[in-house]
Design brief:
Structural class: alpha/beta
CATH topology: TIM Barrel
Number of strands: 12
Strand content: 5-15%
Oligomer: single chain
Largest sheet: 8 strands, parallel
Number of helices: 12
Low-confidence stretches: none
Mean pLDDT: 96
């Protein structure tokens, strides 16, 4: 059965009969998990198995936001606490090696419970006066350093059999408000954006997946956030940045977007988005989004297949206890 161009959440640590029937009928491309879905490792594995069983696809993508720091859905007591991205940025000469090792260990944690996509790395470059929704999630304030550490994180994830999703393209670092609660409007010039905000994404444009920013860039499209802007997607994300991988929305339920869920979704796909993302597991919202989402076809289907084609079995022989000790020692020494 053809997948729908959609990633959905679920309400709890196990599927209700209503959710299972809905997912079987809708056939989303994949799923995303949040802290509300995380129990013991055994419970998480049972949930990921159940989600894939609904679709009849063993390779179906299951995503999570596992950055470290404030954004870590799987944590103690069952999994380690990982540092926020800003911690790597302060390591100077060892930053990329330690970030790669941390990401490789995260990938081990995720793969063990059936999660094969991590919504990381964060490529946003904070600017003075911006909202702290990015803050210490960023690897630093120098675009080239951010790109180098983000590359290391992506490599560590992929070495562990987990696909990275770079976010939030083409950049959330200048936003003066949290897009979960309002619509950020960035008034920087196209030149300033290209020199700072777009630069890390351009350096990592070969990565398989990216998540859009619910941010208005007045120098490019003063009317619409990037997620719903044909101009931003065509001229900046696909054009100036050169990203030709799978482009997914940030959460369609965030308050940066307005209108009904059908309208939000239709605007994103009309702009050129490949995959819609709805996170909160609310059944009425998911039904409205699903009604507006197309089947995964054409160039979007090719990009989705290419992304999953980069999932590779781990073959680096990682000694997990030794790697955890090495990672802890590197952070302690900094």
């Amino acid at each position: 059965m053809t997948s729908r161009a959609l990633i959905l959440g679920c309400a709890g640590k196990s599927l209700s009969p209503e959710e299972a029937a809905f997912f079987r009928d809708v056939q989303p491309w994949g799923f995303i998990l949040f802290k509300r879905n995380i129990g013991t490792p055994e419970e998480v594995r049972a949930l990921t198995d159940a989600l894939r069983a609904c679709l009849g696809r063993t390779l179906a993508p299951i995503l999570i936001d596992q950055e470290g720091g404030r954004v870590q859905r799987m944590g103690p007591p069952h999994w380690p606490a990982y540092p926020a991205g800003g911690r790597y940025g302060r390591l100077n000469g060892s930053a990329t090696a330690v970030a790669r090792l941390g990401a490789r260990l995260m990938a081990h944690d995720l793969a063990e419970v059936g999660i094969n996509v991590d919504c990381a790395p964060v490529l946003d470059v904070p600017a003075p006066g911006s909202h702290d929704i990015i803050g210490d999630r960023a690897y630093g304030t120098n675009p080239d350093s951010v790109a180098a550490i983000a590359r290391a994180v992506a490599e560590g994830l992929m070495a562990g059999g987990v696909l990275p999703v770079m976010k939030h393209i083409p950049g959330h670092g200048r936003a003066a408000c949290d897009s979960h609660h309002g619509l950020p409007v960035v008034e920087a010039s196209r030149e300033a954006l290209a020199a700072q905000d777009f630069r890390p994404f351009r350096a990592l444009a070969d990565l398989p997946m990216a998540m859009s920013a619910h941010v208005v860039f007045t120098a490019i499209d003063p009317e619409r956030p990037a997620t719903q802007s044909p101009t931003v997607i065509r001229d900046v994300i696909r054009g100036a940045i050169g990203f030709d991988g799978l482009l997914m929305t940030d959460d369609l339920s965030m308050h940066a977007l307005t209108g009904t869920f059908r309208e939000r979704t239709e605007r994103a796909f009309a702009a050129g988005i490949d995959i819609g993302l709805h996170c909160n597991g609310a059944m009425d919202e998911m039904r409205a989004v699903a009604e507006a989402v197309p089947l995964l076809a054409g160039r979007a289907a090719e990009r989705a297949a290419a992304a999953l084609g980069r999932l590779a079995p781990t073959g680096d022989g990682l000694d997990v206890p030794q790697a955890r000790a090495q990672f802890a020692a590197a952070l302690a020494a900094a």
